[in-house]
Structure formats: structure tokens, C-alpha cells
Design a protein that fits this description.
Structural class: alpha/beta
CATH architecture of the largest domain: 3-Layer(bba) Sandwich
CATH topology of the largest domain: FAD/NAD(P)-binding domain
Radius of gyration: 23 Å
Strand content: 15-25%
Shape: globular
Number of strands: 16
Low-confidence stretches: 477-483
Mean pLDDT: 94
Distance between the termini: 48 Å
Number of domains: 3
CATH class of the largest domain: Alpha Beta
Number of helices: 19
CATH superfamily of the largest domain: FAD/NAD(P)-binding domain
Oligomer: single chain
Helix content: 25-40%
């Protein structure tokens, strides 16, 4: 059982990071891991609660108390097995997941939560170092083929699970390499891309085929791919940006966050000798006054990337109010995950975040952005904002990055070709993963809307279980019977 006094005797330690002034000069990983004795001490803070809210707070249902206790006892080999039992890619979630499990930790009610995310990453990092993570191809094949369209975390998880039970899986990716927004939206400073390549190599060794540079619905017909396979999984993410509906949104110098982050990640790839296309119209923050609209993770990644490019200044305008004392807004009490935190890795590196602000107009000169107009607002979310009288302000800017979220997956191409029904929000309608088209399923953000990496992996895993059951039921049906 867990150490009954661990949480009383051991204080939470800060996770190791490279110094902000040092790391902002490069694009290498900023996070490290604590030495083993300290990790075991941190794991001892886990109380093995009778009702483990951390387990409920994790969309994957990670067996957190179990592997915390294994780490406490130095049983690292057993810990990675427990971790992989619920999570295909703990190296990704251990770095870029915002850790709703820690927000749900019982200790977080009146103390610092258990260092769950750091321990998770330390387990998988050690497992790779020790050579415990090796390809495990299925012993038998079912003779059934599945196409997965999209290689983000949901598509990768669905592919991994379906391959493990013996189906032959091909993953189609429109970009030049797998990973989705993990590769092209998350800066290398948070997740170096060799980590994605390492996991992809394992999946390929287990029998999964990745067909990159193939845009299903454009380069090849969606109907053709559907007919060629016994099942298809739509895991294309939610990539249609929420529009900025204010005057001046079409000025030169105003760009969606993901357009900028795609370019920056590809630029880093080229600097490291990896092949990546060059944009015809380069978006750069170097030497410019930058304004980021939106204070979520994507906005923070823009801020961090702009600092690394050598921006003159970076100002983040966030409609949410100041983070209350204790770090939680009234509408996100424990065990819910907080909307904002007092600081982030990006803010530690430089730049300013201004809470309770709303951009009202973008001003141009000769068609190019020169100023951002805004005002202070009150309210608990973007749905109930109230302007503060007399609070208007103007900021000079040459680059504005819009990071206010996504609406739904792209409808043209794949979805329209397959004539898939959509829900009220414009996502693929697939309550039980099956879409309106026989043999076609959906998973991840394309189904549930913009969400976290941990939700995407969980959704891909659940979709795989449904698809496997349907495929086996169909294969077992008498000749001529409906699948």
C-alpha cells in the first residue's frame, strides 16, 4: 500500500526546467526529470485514495495510484507496463498534456497536488533508456484492413490499438510526416520531434503503414480509400479556425496561430536537417511588435515561438479575468481543471499577458497592420463579456496572431465526398463512433471538437474497440448477411 505519511513528510518539488534566458535561444526541450531518489519521494506523496479522483480526472483512466506506488518502491519495469495499459503514448502526454489529473488530485484541495505528470514522463523516459519499449507486432492477422485518415494522437492511438488485435492498418496523412498538431502545432521546445519519430518507428515495426503526403479527398478519392478497406477511421482533427470578426481582420500582418506555428515548426525542422516545405509567404515575428489574441495553450506557444524568433515585444491579450488567489476561477472548482494558471513556460521566457481584455479593431496603414485597439472587459467567459467604460487602449503592432480556437473539421474534401452527417457544431456526427456512412467511423477532435491531446488518445482507443467488435461481428456473419 502507499506510504500513509508521504504527503505529510514530503513537499512537492518543482519540475526541472532549463533556465528561461538560456532556453529561449534555441528550440530544444526545456523540461527535464528529477533524480530517481527525488522521484520516489514525490511518488510517496500519493495517498492511494479510496476514490482516486486523479483517475477520474484523466480521460484515459490512467492507473495513477498504481504506478505511483511502483515508482515509490523502485519497480520501474512494472510501472511502464501499468502506464502502457491505458496510454499508448505516455511520452507525449507526459510533456504536453495540461494534466487534468493533477487538478483532480485530492491533495489539490488544500495543498500542492502529486507530481503526476513528471512521474509519468520519468517512467517512459527510463523505459526507453533501458530498452524496455520494443516493437510487439501481433502474432496473428485477421485479414481485415483499416484505413485511418489523420495521424494526430487520435489517429495514432486508433491505429495502434487496431493493429495490436491483428487488423492491417494504413494511416493516411496529408502533411509530410506523421504526428498532426503534435508535430506541426506544438513547438520543439515542448516536444522535440525525434520523440514522435521514435514512436512512429515502433508502430511501423509492429506492422502499421504510414502514407504521408496523401490528402484523402484531394490527392486520392475518399470513396476509393473507403472501398479499398473494411473500415475507415476519420481522425482529421478540428482545423477550421474560429474567425476574428472585427474590423481589420483581413489586414496584412494578421494571421491565424496555426499558420504561424506550422511555419515555425517546419523552419526548425530545416535548421536540424530534416526535410520540410517552405511557405510562399513567410510569417515572421523577428524584430516586430507582436500581439497574440487568446491566452490558451496555442497562444502561449505563439508567444514562446515569437520570443525565439527575436520579436521586439510580445503582448498577449486574454479575455479571461485575473487568476484568483489559489489559481482557480469560481466556475472551475476542484476537481475541475483550471482555465488559466498564474504563469506558464512561455511567460517565464518573456512577454506580457494582459487579462480581461478584448480586441475591438485592427488598424492598418496601406493595407498593413500598425495598431491594435482594445478595451478591458469583465465576465467569467467570452460568452458574457461586459465592457469596462473608459478602458479603451491602443497598442502598436506589426504582427497579430489569432489564437481563439477552432470551430470544427474541414467539411470540403473527405467529409463531403463521403457525405457524412454533421452535428450541430459542425463536427462529424458519430455518437458511438460510427458515422452515417456504413463502415466509416470518427475519432478525436473531428468527432468531439477541439480538445486536449489526452482526450484525443482516449477517443482513438475507444473508437478502436468499437471498430474491432464491428469488424469481427461482420467477419463472423454468414455469407450474404449484413455486416
Amino acid at each position: 500500500m502507499a506510504n500513509p505519511r508521504g504527503f505529510l513528510e514530503v513537499r512537492r518539488a518543482p519540475a526541472p526546467e532549463r533556465a528561461p534566458r538560456e532556453r529561449v535561444r534555441d528550440s530544444h526541450e526545456i523540461f527535464g526529470t528529477l533524480p530517481e531518489p527525488e522521484l520516489r519521494d514525490q511518488a510517496s506523496r500519493c495517498m492511494d485514495c479510496g476514490v482516486p479522483f486523479c483517475n477520474n480526472g484523466c480521460p484515459l483512466g490512467n492507473l495513477i495510484p498504481d504506478w505511483n506506488d511502483l515508482v515509490r518502491r523502485g519497480m520501474w519495469r512494472e510501472a511502464i507496463d501499468q502506464l502502457h495499459a491505458t496510454n499508448n503514448f505516455p511520452e507525449f502526454t507526459g510533456l504536453v498534456c495540461p494534466a487534468p489529473c493533477e487538478s483532480a488530485c485530492v491533495l489539490d484541495i488544500a495543498d500542492d497536488p502529486v507530481m503526476i505528470k513528471q512521474i509519468e514522463y520519468a517512467i517512459v523516459d527510463r523505459a526507453f533508456e533501458e530498452g524496455w519499449i520494443v516493437p510487439r507486432p501481433p502474432e496473428n492477422r485477421t485479414g481485415l484492413a483499416v484505413a485511418v485518415v489523420g495521424s494526430g494522437p487520435a489517429g495514432m492511438a486508433a491505429a495502434a490499438e487496431l493493429n495490436q488485435v491483428g487488423h492491417t492498418v494504413t494511416v493516411y496523412e496529408r502533411d509530410e510526416a506523421p504526428g498532426g498538431l503534435m508535430r506541426f502545432g506544438v513547438p520543439d521546445a515542448k516536444l522535440e520531434k525525434w520523440m514522435i519519430d521514435r514512436r512512429i518507428a515502433l508502430l511501423e515495426a509492429e506492422g502499421i503503414e504510414f502514407a504521408c503526403g496523401v490528402d484523402v479527398g484531394a490527392d486520392v478519392g475518399a470513396e476509393e480509400i473507403a472501398e479499398r478497406h473494411d473500415a475507415m477511421v476519420v481522425a482529421v482533427g478540428s482545423r477550421v479556425e474560429r474567425p476574428l470578426e472585427i474590423p481589420g481582420a483581413d489586414l496584412d500582418g494578421v494571421h491565424y496561430a496555426m499558420d504561424y506555428l506550422y511555419q515555425r515548426n517546419r523552419a526548425v525542422a530545416r535548421e536540424e536537417g530534416r526535410e520540410a516545405p517552405t511557405a510562399k509567404r513567410v510569417i515572421t515575428a523577428g524584430g516586430k511588435r507582436v500581439v497574440v489574441i487568446g491566452g490558451g495553450d496555442t497562444g502561449m506557444d505563439c508567444l514562446s515561438s515569437a520570443n525565439r524568433e527575436g520579436a521586439e515585444s510580445v503582448l498577449m491579450l486574454d479575455v479571461y479575468g485575473n487568476v484568483p488567489e489559489g489559481g482557480r476561477y469560481a466556475n472551475t472548482p476542484w476537481p475541475m481543471a483550471p482555465r488559466r494558471t498564474e504563469t506558464t513556460y512561455a511567460l517565464d521566457e518573456g512577454g506580457e499577458r494582459r487579462f480581461g481584455t478584448q480586441v475591438t479593431e485592427l488598424e492598418g496603414d496601406g493595407g498593413s497592420l500598425v495598431r491594435v485597439h482594445g478595451r478591458h472587459v469583465a465576465g467569467s467567459s467570452s460568452r458574457d463579456l461586459r465592457p469596462v467604460p473608459g478602458s479603451e487602449f491602443v497598442e502598436r503592432a506589426e504582427l497579430c496572431l489569432v489564437a481563439i480556437g477552432f470551430q470544427h473539421p474541414a467539411h470540403e474534401g473527405l467529409l463531403s465526398d463521403l457525405r457524412l452527417a454533421l452535428d450541430a457544431r459542425g463536427n462529424v456526427s458519430a455518437k458511438s463512433f460510427a458515422t452515417s456512412r456504413e463502415g466509416v467511423y470518427a475519432a478525436g477532435d473531428a468527432r468531439i471538437g477541439q480538445s486536449l491531446i489526452v482526450n484525443a488518445i482516449a477517443d482513438g482507443r475507444r473508437a478502436a474497440r468499437v471498430i474491432d467488435r464491428r469488424l469481427r461481428e461482420g467477419a463472423a456473419a454468414p455469407a450474404g448477411a449484413a455486416a
